[in-house]
Design goal:
15 strands, 24% strand, alpha+beta, rod-shaped, 356 residues
C-alpha cells in the first residue's frame, strides 16, 4: 500500500494553494515525487505524513535519568520552559522515548501554526496521519540540505536542524530519491492536532454516548431496586398466606392461592351448616368482642346466628369499626329487643327490603 508524504512550507505561509513537496512511498521506497498543492491532493482522500519546514522544526535533546513516563513528561515540560522563547502555554511540546544513552529528543511548535495546518487540512478533507520535524523524513545516519538548513538523522528518535548549512558539519548528503524514505519515529507533534480533529461531531457523539451510558446505568439501578422491593413484598405476602392457610404445602403465587382458599372456604360454609355455623361464630367473636360475657343463649337457624343477651346487656351498642369489619367479611348484624341477629349481608338486605 502506498503512503503519501509531504514537505510543508512555513506554517505562517500555508494555504490551500501552497505548493508542497510530494513523495509516494511503497515498501519504504520512494516510487514517485513532485510538487502539488494541498487543494489538488484533497481529491486523493489519502492520509498524510507531514514534515515541517526546517524553520518550524524546533528541536533539542535533553539528558535525563531513567524515570517513569509521567515523570519524564513533567521533566521535559519543566526544561521546555527554559528553552522556549515566549509563553510555553502557546506551544505544543512533544518528546520521544529515552534512549540507551540517556538522551530524550524534544520538539515544540506554536499552537497557532498547528491550528492553521489543521484548518487547511480540514478544508481540503485531508486526514493527517503524523506530523514530524523535517529531519525525520531522512533515513537514519543520513543528511540533506533544505533551503539553507542542514538536516541530520542520528537515530530513529534523534534528529537535528543546523541553520548554518554545510558550514556546520562536514557530512555527505543523501541522494534525492532517499530524501523522503526514512522511517518515522515513535513520537510526533500531531497529538494536539489529532485531539482537535476528533472534536466537533466526534466530541458531541462522545457526549451523547456518555449520557446514554449514565442513563442506562441509572435505569438498571432503578430496575434492580424495584426488583428487590417486589421480591420483599412477595416474601411478605407468602409468609402471611402460610400463616392464614397452614394447610398449603407450598406458596408459589400468594395472591392467587389466597383467593382460591377463601373461595373454597366460602363454598364449604355455604354447603355445610356445621362449617357455616363455626365460621359465623368465629367471625362474631372477632368482630363483636363487646358481646363477650353478655350472651344468655344463642341459636342457629337458616344460616343466621341469633344471640339473646342478658337483661342488663340489651341496650344498643354505638356504631363503630366492628360494623365495617363485619361487612367486609360478608356479614351483617341487626339489633332488636332480645339481642342480635347475624347472617350473610345479602340475605339481611333482602329481608329488610321485604319488610319495607
Amino acid at each position: 500500500m502506498k503512503r503519501l508524504r509531504i514537505g510543508l512550507p512555513p506554517l505562517d505561509q500555508l494555504n490551500a494553494d501552497s505548493p508542497v513537496h510530494v513523495a509516494w512511498l511503497e515498501g519504504g521506497v520512494v516510487v514517485s515525487q513532485g510538487c502539488e498543492s494541498l487543494a489538488r491532493l484533497g481529491k486523493t482522500r489519502q492520509a498524510l505524513d507531514c514534515f515541517l519546514h526546517p524553520r518550524d522544526s524546533l528541536l533539542t535533546s535533553l539528558e535525563l535519568p531513567p524515570l517513569p513516563a509521567a515523570k519524564t513528561a513533567a521533566a521535559v515540560a519543566c526544561a521546555a520552559q527554559a528553552l522556549i522563547l515566549g509563553p510555553v502555554e502557546q506551544m505544543q511540546v512533544a518528546h520521544g522515548p529515552r534512549e540507551s544513552c540517556g538522551r530524550v529528543q524534544v520538539a515544540w511548535i506554536p499552537t497557532a501554526g498547528l491550528e492553521r495546518l489543521g484548518q487547511v487540512l480540514a478544508q481540503q478533507q485531508l486526514k493527517l496521519r503524523g506530523l514530524y520535524p523535517a529531519p525525520y523524513a531522512l533515513p537514519v545516519g543520513a543528511a540533506a540540505l533544505d533551503e539553507g538548513y542542514l538536516l541530520t538523522r542520528d537515530s530513529l528518535q534523534q534528529g537535528a536542524v543546523h541553520p548554518l548549512g554545510l558550514q556546520a558539519l562536514d557530512v555527505p548528503l543523501v541522494a534525492a530519491p532517499q530524501r523522503w524514505s526514512g522511517a518515522v519515529p515513535a513520537w510526533g507533534l500531531h497529538g494536539h492536532l489529532s485531539q482537535r480533529a476528533s472534536g466537533g461531531w466526534g466530541r458531541a457523539l462522545a457526549g451523547v454516548a456518555l449520557a446514554t451510558a449514565i442513563w442506562t446505568l441509572g435505569l438498571n439501578l432503578y430496575a434492580a431496586r424495584q426488583v428487590d422491593e417486589g421480591q420483599r413484598l412477595k416474601a411478605l405476602m407468602s409468609q402471611q398466606v402460610r400463616q392464614a392457610f397452614p394447610e398449603l404445602p407450598v406458596v408459589l403465587n400468594p395472591l392467587q392461592q389466597a383467593r382460591q382458599q377463601l373461595a373454597a372456604r366460602q363454598n364449604d360454609a355455604a354447603t355445610d351448616p356445621g362449617q357455616r355455623f363455626t365460621s359465623l361464630l368465629q367471625q362474631v367473636g372477632s368482630s363483636l368482642p363487646f358481646m363477650v360475657g353478655s350472651v344468655d343463649r344463642l341459636t342457629f337457624e337458616q344460616g343466621r346466628l341469633h344471640l339473646v343477651l342478658l337483661t342488663d346487656s340489651r341496650s344498643p351498642v354505638a356504631e363503630g369499626d366492628w360494623q365495617a369489619a363485619l361487612a367486609q367479611a360478608g356479614f351483617a348484624a341487626t339489633h332488636d329487643d332480645q339481642g342480635w341477629s347475624i347472617g350473610p349481608a345479602q340475605a339481611a338486605a333482602e329481608s329488610e327490603a321485604i319488610d319495607e
